[in-house]
Amino acid sequence: MIRFTIVASVLLFQVAPAPKTTIEGTVVQASSGAPLMGARVILSRGAGPTGAAVPAPLPVTPTPPPPTPPPLPASTGASAGGAGLLTSTFVIQSVSPTNGPANSGNLPSATTDSQGHYVLKDVDAGVYRVTFAANGYVKQDYGQRSLTGQGASLTVTAGNPVKNINMTLTQTGNIGGRIRDTSGVPAAGVPVQLLRATFNVTGQRNFQSVESINTDDRGEFRLFWLTPGRYYINAGTPPGPANRPTPFGGGNISPNQVPGESFSYAFYPGVSNVNQAIAIDLNSGTDINGMDFIVSRQQQLNVRGRIVDTRTGAPPASVNINLAYQVFSGGGSFSVGSNYNPTTGTFELTNVTPGSYTLSATASDSAASAGLVDPAVRAKAANASIPIDLLNSDLENVVLNLSLGFPLSGRLIVEGNPPPSLSTIRIQLRSSLNGAITNSFGGNAPASPTTNPDGAFRFEGVAPGEYRIALNGLPPEFYLKDVRYNRVDALNQPMQFISGDAGTLDVMVSSGAIQVDGTVFDEKAQPAAGVSVVLIPDQHRDRTDLYKNATTDTLGKYQVRGVPPGDYKLFAWDTVDQFAWFDPEVVMRDESKGKPVHVLDSSNQSIDLKIISGH
To answer: Is residue 77, in this structure, part of any structural domain at all?
Structure first.
């Protein structure tokens, strides 16, 4: 018998550190192109672009990897059976994970020299974000296309220096002014907010709080190092619970200040309606002063009224009363001193800060115990909500009629090839005002019902009012073709729902949606990555479902799906805030640069575009 013995022996594990590298570049001033000394360059871990209009990760051109360390000397010997010793040598190379080790907070940083040059040393392989900051300049990330946009990630490979990561920083601006009361006396401690208009996916304009401060003893305020852009100024005491900490406005509050002072809520140049406010265009490196206006000192007010349960015609035995409010930093709801008399149904809310609210009342006793409603809906409490405005005096004779809402039945009709399942398509009712979708804060929007296999659906608890119809879960090859409520158009105009109306809602979708695709080219006729491509209708621009958008990939290609037949314009913006295309001013500014598109049913189109720059 011949015996073979093979012995595998690992003589040594060697851990070789991964080669590190450097990132370097230059920072200059946007206004003059001169080098910017003293700018901070900060490295942080990043996993790729996050914004809709962000370019794809920018890889560094690879170079050949460093040579593998020479093998360790082999060792020989003999086994007891006389066979040769089989040896193996292992070299283990350590590479940091791209999403950062536990000590990712200790990444290198640098400061630019007199020539604006910087070097980030000892950088491990990975994916990073590079941030540039300097006092008096807008902080920006590498790959950022606009001052308010998102940056791009930078992929670094081991041992390969990264050069020419340059940045041009834009100077900030400042805004200042003075607030007085109606007597001309400087108003101290008034909260002041700087607001920026934004749009959401439904096309609704919102206002975002950018900076905040309180006026000093001279009634003056100064907001400094602001990113250039269009702003609005708001001052005064926001609606909400009285004597609560101010949700915005920081610093410069003296302990000797009279507590609990309240000021009217106003927008520059002193109007109470934000739609009448004057916008302020802040350019780079400018100081805008004289933003003065007047606010009045105000007292807490009261709300009085009566509550009726429409199911019985009598006041509810017990009720919860709330005020919902909305401010630019958020919102909420609260209960105040509500003196409710169940015999007469009268109530009084005391010490309410002036402002706009949604007043809501909900019967807290169970309607089911009285056997007043169908068992299927007994669990839902009767309620009512109405908007109110508290201005200069108490609000009297408010009437809240509690009900369970009303049912609304309808059907989903499919034109063309049916989708695999109708149950995935949900019909939504969105509250609107004069056709524009609104925030129904404090209200109870009806839940979207399930669509049955035959297309039937039924809303429960719909409150009377104005609504826009929207669909959720519609396949991309389909589009919303028609909506009729009681045979009246409810697609190109809002639906008016009246209490107790027995009408039906007919929603038609078609499988004839088309696709528009193509390539976007920059000024040098090169494919442009990370560009926002937006398809905007020529008519019915209040219908946000007709707006379609996409972002070009690394090859500059885009694809827009689910487009209904009609006439449109295509825009390709290099820098535009998300959903800013719902702003009529933005579209009007570039209307002539849009490319006309005539879309026919089930006829896909390929259209190349030239980038729109200068935003």
So the answer is: no
SS3 label, residue 98: coil
Contact in structure between 139 and 132 (CB atoms under 8 Å): yes
Q: What is the DSSP annotation of 577-597?
A: -TTGGGSHHHHHHTGGGSEEE
* Statement to judge: residues 459 and 558 lie in one domain: no
Say if CB 172 and CB 284 are below 8 A apart.
yes
Last residue of a domain, one of 402, 427, 444: 402
pTM of the model: 0.73
Cα separation, 251 vs 215, whole angstroms? 9
Instruction: Note the Cα 258 to chain centre separation in Å.
Output: 38
Q: Copy the structure tokens of residue 540.
A: 């019915």
Q: Taking the chain, what is the end-to-end CA distance rounded to the nearest angstrom?
A: 86
Asked if 270 and 182 sit in the same domain, the reply is: yes
**What whole-number percentage of the chain has pLDDT above 90?**
51
Whether a cis peptide bond, with omega within 30° of 0, leads into 269 is: yes
Asked whether residue 379 falls in the same domain as residue 335, the answer is yes
Plot region of 210 (φ>0 → left; ψ -120 to 50 → alpha; else → beta): alpha
Contact 513, 548 (CB under 8 A): no
Whether residues 136 and 26 share a domain: the answer is: yes
283 and 218, same structural domain? yes
The Cα–Cα gap between 97 and 106 comes to 15
CATH of the domain at 531: 2.60.40.1120
The rounded distance, in Å, linking the Cα atoms of 350 and 354 is 11
pLDDT (0 to 100) of residue 36: 97
25 and 147 assigned to the same domain = yes
pLDDT of amino acid 358: 86
Rg (Cα) of the chain, in Å, rounded? 32
Q: How many Cβ atoms sit within 10 Å of the Cβ of residue 243?
A: 10
- Quick one: tokens of 446? 């009806």
Q: What pLDDT, on a 0 to 100 scale, did the predictor assign at position 368? A: 40
Same domain, 219 and 279: yes
Residues 6 or more apart whose CB falls under 8 angstroms from that of 73 comprise none
Domain tally, the chain: 5
Q: Which residue has the tokens 């040393």?
A: 121
Angle at 36 between CA 35 and CA 42, to 5 degrees: 125
In the predicted model, residues of the chain with pLDDT beneath 70 are: 1-16, 47-105, 242-253, 327-333, 336-338, 365-380, 439-445, 500-502, 614-615
Per-residue tokens: 42: 């900060």
Q: What is the DSSP string of 469-529?
A: EEEES--TT-EEEEEEETTEE-SSS-EEE-TT---EEEEEEES--EEEEEEEE-TTS-B-S
What is the rounded CA–CA span in Å between residue 550 and residue 432? 27
Q: Is residue 90 part of a domain?
A: no
How far, in Å, CA of 593 to CA of 610, rounded? 9
CATH code of residue 505:
2.60.40.10
Say whether both 28 and 132 belong to one domain: yes
Q: Of 475, 510, 545, which residue constitutes the final position of a domain? A: 510
Residues 187, 215 contacting (CB under 8 angstroms) = yes
